[in-house]
Design brief:
The protein is an all-alpha fold. It contains eight helices and no strands. It has helices spanning 2-15, 19-33, 44-55, 57-66, 77-86, 89-95, 102-111, 128-137. It is globular and about 45 Å long. The two termini are 24 Å apart.
Length: 138
Amino acid sequence: MKEVVNLIEKVVTEKKIDRHQGLNAVLDFLIDIFDIKHWKEPEGWFKAVAKAEQEEPHLYRIMMIATAMENGSWLDFFGGVYEEMYQSKGKASTLGQFFTPPNLCDLLAKVSQPTEGKISDCACGSGAFPIGMLQKIV
């Protein structure tokens, strides 16, 4: 996650924006790159990715990290970025914000019995539990 934060910091510096706008730039980039418009023509998505790699190398690298799943592991991308960039330990306890660790999500996924493909995540913050459940299903 440190590499992602460093890349976001580079985007912030290059575009001369604040950190929150930097995270928004990442989200806007991801929304655009996975937009259905790129699938309407043959090789459209691959062209968009190649263009992004040239024009937005830091955002492209973040996308590659966000979509990487190695050795059957998974990544709570947004929760990790939020914790690293915006949340101090004191602020977390003051606001009552605590993120579920991946190993606990994995354990909950193993003992859960989804009903008709539905799960309940009463504290769905960054979506770590649904990601863990998806890994169980796939």
